Amino acid sequence: MAALHTGSAALRGAIPGTGSTVSVLTATAIVVADMVGVGVFTSLGFQVKDIPSGFSILLLWAVGGVVALCGVFSYGELGAMFPRSSGEYNFLGRAYHPAFGFLAGWVSATVGFAAPVALAAMAFGEYGRSILPDAPPLALAVGVVWLVSIVQLTGMRHSSTFQLAATVLKVVLIVAFLVTGFVIATPQPVSFAPSPADLAYVLSAPFAISLVFVMYSFSGWNAATYIIGEMRLPERNVPRAMLFGTLIVLVLYVALNAVFLHTAPIDKLAGQLDVARISGSYIFGEIGGRVVGVMICVGLISSISAMMWIGPRVMMTMGEDIPALRLFARRSGSGAPAYAILFQLAVANLMLFTRSFEAVLDFIQFALLFCSFFTVAGVIKLRITRPELPRPYRAWGYPVTPLVFLLVTAFMMYYLLTQRPLQSALGTLIMVSGLLIYAIFRKRADGAASAGPACE
């Protein structure tokens, strides 16, 4: 019978028909690329409005990184236990029920990656105007998505090279920006040492709410779990890639916010969206905007590449399990899941032309947090219900680290439910629609199985 679950295939580990060719270095690059988007370059202005303290701001970003690391430890344990691509689709299906896995896979495969790809591409188009002033942003956005997709369609060898080169260039440009900012800019009168006033800031509501948006900037730390089946020694390298990648981003994020505060007056940053450009103008003068635009554009290319790599792997793995989606499991001669890549490309383009990605991003946030929450909770559940399962890697700091992640994620879901109830309700409807589609596919699969061996 063609089982509609993550059963036997998940036990095999690597994806059939492919070599495990992704190194820990490339996987780390994917994690870094997926995490570092535009969030860190735009959010500080809204944080310093209510938290005008250098120490509290840096602590805010450090806390966000620590919470992300707590998630890394739990996902690392699950990834080593169940070494199969597709992230939450695989983990939730194994820890709870195949229907729960399908729910997460449905969200990720349809809009969960396509919407962020479209948003990053549109940001690329806007920042690209600082380099090519006459180029239409939409044309630049569509062009970069197609370029990256073509690279992905050429196969893993070229994808790995492109991803590694783009991410290294991204990190090099950010480091150059940091060094230049600290060395040549006129320092502002801001202190990064703790003071008595910081306790009140850290315990305030604005600090807690700012943490929600900082965590969004850290999202992507689990990127390596979507390509487990393509990695060498996944039980060892998946936790390493997530850990190394998240630590790199944690250092970059704290340093970037430090240099923004070091180079530009807080009153000039407060309430502003383009804090990187403001900081760049104080460092580089009139060409600051162009310098920052180039840095962000390069960074966005690597981010789009990472999402165009890992997103189609969800649909590909679902296609291996579900007869109705089998087309998406097909790979080209070079190993690329061509139909899954083309599907995500089509959805991303549709969102770009209709400008629907902003609305989609609003209402999938709750669904994505919901799936992450129960994935980490699955570590605790399996420790209790299936203690005999092999665990090549065990979550560091258990049970404290998963509980920290669960508490912060629960707060984020509560914030969305209270502040954006309509968007959260729409996100819930997407998940419910996934369950309905699962029931339909399951009924078809059962009907095919009852028809006899020819339907296997």
What does this structure look like?
The chain is mainly alpha-helical. The chain has 20 helices and no strands. Helix 9 runs antiparallel to helix 17 and helix 10 runs antiparallel to helix 16. The longest helix is centred in the C-terminal third of the chain and has 34 residues. The N terminus is likely disordered.
Secondary structure topology:
Elements (H helix, E strand, L loop, with lengths): L7 H5 L11 H12 L3 H4 L1 H7 L3 H28 L6 H8 L2 H15 L1 H15 L8 H17 L2 H29 L11 H7 L2 H14 L15 H30 L2 H4 L5 H10 L3 H34 L16 H17 L2 H29 L14 H20 L1 H30 L6
Alpha-carbon Rg, integer: 22 Å
Order of helices and strands: HHHHHHHHHHHHHHHHHHHH
Molecular shape: globular
Task: Give the number of DSSP strands.
Answer: 0
List the total number of helices: 20
Judged by helices, strands and strand pairing, the structural class is: mainly alpha
Task: Work out the strand percent.
Answer: under 5%
Chain-averaged pLDDT? 90
Give the helix level as a range of percent.
over 70%
CATH superfamily: Amino acid/polyamine transporter I
Based on the coordinates given, report the CATH architecture. Up-down Bundle
Distance between the first and last residues' Cα: 5 Å
- Under CATH, the topology is which? Amino acid/polyamine transporter I
Name of the level-1 CATH class: Mainly Alpha
**Most strands sheet:** none
Number of domains: 1
pLDDT below 50 for ≥5 consecutive residues: which ranges? 1-19
